[in-house]
Amino acid sequence: QWNFIVFKHNEHQVDKAKKVAKSIGMDFRVKVTQKFRGHKNFSVMEDGKKLYDLFPPDNSKYRHPNIGNKLQVPDDEETYFSKTGPYGTLGCTDYSKLDNIKINCIVKKQQEVFLAYTGHLLPCCYIGTPYYDSPGNGQFKEDIGLIKFDLNKLSVKKAMNNLKLVEETWNQKTIREGKLLTCVKVCGENTQNRTGYVE
C-alpha cells in the first residue's frame, strides 16, 4: 500500500502518484499529516542539524486541523532530551488535565510498527520522531530508552517483545509517574493529533 504524505512541495503530484499506483496494482491512500502541531513549518533534522523545512499543503482537503502560525525553531538534541529542558518530561508543569485521558492506541489495533531510519523498531512514528517542539517528547528516551528497540543490537523478536514496555506505561495514573505524554497527546480519547487519510 502506498501512503502518500501530502506537503506543499508535492501536493501537485497526488493525481500522478495515484495513477502510478493503479498502474502497478498498488492500493493508494492520501495521508494528511499531523506533523505541524500548531506550526506553519516542520524542520527536518539529521544528526542535530536542520536540513530543510517542510510546509503544509495549500489545498484544505489535505491540511490537518492542527496547522498553526508559529514558526518551528528546532533546538539541539540535548535540549530535547533533557529532563529539565523545555521539552523533556519536566518541561511541562501541569499535567492534571491529561492524567485521566484513556489511551486508544491506533497502531496496536492495526498491528503496525514503525521502523526508523536509525534501525530502531518502535511502536509508531510519533514516538520515533523526537524532533518536534512539544512538551514531553523526550520522555520515551528518558524513561524507557531507545537501546531496547535498536535492531543494530537486538533481534527483531526481542525488540518486538520490548514494545510491551510502552503499553505498560498506559496503566500509570499520571504523566509524572510514567504514563507516556506522547501516547496521551496522540492516541488519547478526543485528541486531534492523529494522522488522517482522504480518498
Q: What keywords describe this structure?
A:
single chain; alpha+beta; 2 domains; 3-stranded mixed sheet; 7 strands; globular
What topology emerges from the helices and strands here?
Blueprint: E1 2-5, H1 14-23, E2 28-32, E3 42-46, E4 49-54, H2 77-80, H3 96-99, H4 106-110, E5 114-115, E6 121-122, H5 125-128, H6 139-143, H7 156-162, H8 164-169, H9 181-187, E7 196-198
Write up this protein.
With 199 residues, the protein is an alpha+beta fold. The protein folds into two domains: 1-74, no CATH class; 75-193, no CATH class. 26% of the residues lie in helices and 14% in strands. It contains nine helices and seven strands, in the order E-H-E-E-E-H-H-H-E-E-H-H-H-H-H-E. It has helices at 14-23, 77-80, 96-99, 106-110, 125-128, 139-143, 156-162, 164-169, 181-187; strands at residues 2-5, 28-32, 42-46, 49-54, 114-115, 121-122, 196-198. The two termini are 13 Å apart. The model has no long low-confidence stretch (mean pLDDT 82). This is 4Fe4S-binding SPASM domain-containing protein. It comes from marine metagenome.
